[in-house]
Amino acid sequence: AQKVTQAQTEISVVEKEDVTLDCVYETRDTTYYLFWYKQPPSGELVFLIRRNSFDEQNEISGRYSWNFQKSTSSFNFTITASQVVDSAVYFCALSERRYGNNRLAFGKGNQVVVIP
Amino acid sequence: NAGVTQTPKFRVLKTGQSMTLLCAQDMNHEYMYWYRQDPGMGLRLIHYSVGEGTTAKGEVPDGYNVSRLKKQNFLLGLESAAPSQTSVYFCASSKHGTPSSYEQYFGPGTRLTVT
């Protein structure tokens, strides 16, 4: 069963528009961590943020913001005022305490295309 | 500080050939991982290691073997390559212990084609 679901495969936005990426996860653990990674066209994976299951405080960091809601098992990610450099594939990932928090289960990714 | 490096960057193999992918990290991380990335599939964990001399199976281990003889290196072997192993392979590493260390740092990837 898919532990991390990213329903939208490709999202196109015009530059300066906001874009929100949805992530729904599934776990029986009470302690777990959620991550967002970015994979630009060059191919490397870049860590963006980590959230633990005890911290439902939403956060804003520059043009990025995150909305973590345990009640709906969602960890959504928003890019405000998108730029062409934001064009990338974004992955949501989950690590669970039962595996020692050292195994990441990735979603299939959201391809974001920012049109100038 | 190079982070995580992978060798080679590209490789083409014929069915049945063998090869070894090398991953090296200079961050003194205890944990290391091998993933494969296929179109529309995200990344899937092949094998991982929680320390020198130890390895464990991930989600898709069949057809691969690994070794962690030194803390800084993690090798992924394909004994008899198959076209289904055509993929991009990523190595990653992470620290052990505190929650702030759970994020994994990735190498640049190895693009492998098996014909």
What is the N-to-C order of secondary-structure elements of chain A (H for helix, E for strand)? EEEEEEEEEEEE
Which strand-content bin applies to the residues of chain A?
A: over 45%
- Unreliable residue runs of chain A: none
What is the count of β-strands of chain B? 11
Largest interface: A-B, 23 and 28 residues
Order of helices and strands of chain B: EEEEEEEEEEE
Structural class of chain A: mainly beta
Taking the alpha carbons of the first and last residues of chain A, their distance comes to: 38 Å
- What profile does the largest beta sheet of chain B have? 7 strands, mixed
Find the count of extended strands of chain A (DSSP E, 2+ residues): 12
Shape of chain B: globular
Rounded Rg of chain A? 14 Å
- Per DSSP, what share of the residues of chain B sits in E-state strands of 2 or more residues? over 45%
**Total count of helical runs of at least 4 residues of chain A:** 0
- Main β-sheet of chain A, in a few words? 6 strands, mixed
Instruction: Specify the structural class of chain B.
Output: mainly beta
Q: Which radius of gyration of chain B do the C-alpha atoms yield?
A: 13 Å
Q: Report the helical percentage of chain A.
A: under 10%
Describe the protein in words.
Chain A is mostly beta strands and 116 residues long. Chain A has no helices and twelve strands. Chain A has strands at 4-5, 10-14, 19-21, 24-25, 32-39, 46-52, 59-61, 64-69, 74-79, 88-96, 104-106, 110-115. With 115 residues, chain B is mainly β. Chain B has strands at 4-7, 10-13, 19-25, 31-38, 42-51, 54-57, 65-67, 73-78, 87-94, 105-106, 110-114. The mean pLDDT of chain B is 92.
Spell out the blueprint of helices and strands.
The complex is a heterodimer of chains A (116) and B (115).
Chain A: E1 4-5, E2 10-14, E3 19-21, E4 24-25, E5 32-39, E6 46-52, E7 59-61, E8 64-69, E9 74-79, E10 88-96, E11 104-106, E12 110-115
Parallel strand pairs in A: 2-12
Antiparallel strand pairs in A: 1-4, 3-9, 5-6, 5-10, 7-8, 8-9, 10-11, 10-12
Chain B: E1 4-7, E2 10-13, E3 19-25, E4 31-38, E5 42-51, E6 54-57, E7 65-67, E8 73-78, E9 87-94, E10 105-106, E11 110-114
Parallel strand pairs in B: 2-11
Antiparallel strand pairs in B: 1-3, 3-8, 4-5, 4-9, 5-6, 7-8, 9-10, 9-11
